[in-house]
């Protein structure tokens, strides 16, 4: 896997929205944080653009992201908003220049579509908080992003407080993202390969039976059988039907992977939660789950 160049003070970050519409005012706090880190930014044409719920048409959003990829002065591309819409522009993008000079693509949730596609190009990406609401997340959220972008050594260690966690050690490239997006990409040229890799999943605002359906789809596609480990982040604001499904989202995942032997942890600090730690997708990592702690080590 190829790691994009790390940033230094004075570098230029491109800010775009590949999905829902958003104004500059809504990301002002995040932009101020970039300046505090010593970085400069340029706003793409999608910031402030509008077509129904999208940040401009598919053509506008694709062209905006393409220009950021092709501009040699841009050292990282930070997505300002999630929602839905990134998958609609994937087939309109040309990654030829990007493959020659990779740059960090930053975001999560709907940005999983980009993470997955770029992973097939064997280039690392940064699963991290979108610019919107960055200033209101935990201190660890912004510190983790800054540390990675500037090339600092990075690891995550948290207490093991979950009864469903399965202890063990796994080593492999980290992949994944939003479960709904991974599910939607199955069968396409943007779908990730998961054998011998550590898979991270998270989701928001889903019915419990949807979680079961999506996990069963991943299982039947062979994406859960040969993992080196599974990390489950926030399963946030889940909904139940009038007739209860009978399990939490975590219990659904646990049951579906119960026949496998790799380490598994739940409620990891990443996803649609206040403590949304950055993850380097494509990086070879070590996951260590003991009775007392969960540790994730990212090697340079």
UniProtKB/TrEMBL annotation:
Residues 171-287 form the LD-carboxypeptidase C-terminal domain. The keyword Lipid biosynthesis does not apply. Keywords: Carboxypeptidase, Hydrolase, Protease, Serine protease. Residues 13-128 form the LD-carboxypeptidase N-terminal domain. This is LD-carboxypeptidase. Belongs to the peptidase S66 family. Transmembrane segments: none annotated. The keyword Cell membrane does not apply. Pfam families: Peptidase_S66, Peptidase_S66C. It comes from Aequorivita aurantiaca.
């Amino acid at each position: 896997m190829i790691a994009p160049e790390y940033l230094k003070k004075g570098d230029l970050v491109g800010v775009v929205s590949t999905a829902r519409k958003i104004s500059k005012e809504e990301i002002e706090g995040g932009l101020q944080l970039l300046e505090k880190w010593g970085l400069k930014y340029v706003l793409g044409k999608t910031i402030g653009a509008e077509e129904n719920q999208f940040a401009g048409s598919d053509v506008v959003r694709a062209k905006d992201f393409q220009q950021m990829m092709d501009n040699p002065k841009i050292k990282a591309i930070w997505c300002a908003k999630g929602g839905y819409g990134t998958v609609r522009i994937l087939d309109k993008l040309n990654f030829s220049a990007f493959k020659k000079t990779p740059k960090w693509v930053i975001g999560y949730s709907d940005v999983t579509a980009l993470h997955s596609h770029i992973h097939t190009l064997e280039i690392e990406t940064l699963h991290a908080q979108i610019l919107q609401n960055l200033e209101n997340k935990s201190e660890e959220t912004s510190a983790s992003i800054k540390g990675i972008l500037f090339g600092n050594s990075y690891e995550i260690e948290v207490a093991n407080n979950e009864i469903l966690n399965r202890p063990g050690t796994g080593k492999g490239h980290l992949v994944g993202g939003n479960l709904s997006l991974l599910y939607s990409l199955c069968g396409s040229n943007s779908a990730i390969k998961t054998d011998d890799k550590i898979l991270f999943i998270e989701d928001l605002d889903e019915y419990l039976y949807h979680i079961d359906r999506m996990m069963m789809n991943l299982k039947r596609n062979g994406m859960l059988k040969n993992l080196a480990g599974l990390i489950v982040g926030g399963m946030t604001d889940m909904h139940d039907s009038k007739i209860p499904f009978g399990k939490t989202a975590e219990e659904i995942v646990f049951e579906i992977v119960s026949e496998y032997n790799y380490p598994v942890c739940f409620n990891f600090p990443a996803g649609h939660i206040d403590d949304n730690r950055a993850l380097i997708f494509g990086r070879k990592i070590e996951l260590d789950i003991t009775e007392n702690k969960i540790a994730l080590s990212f090697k340079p």
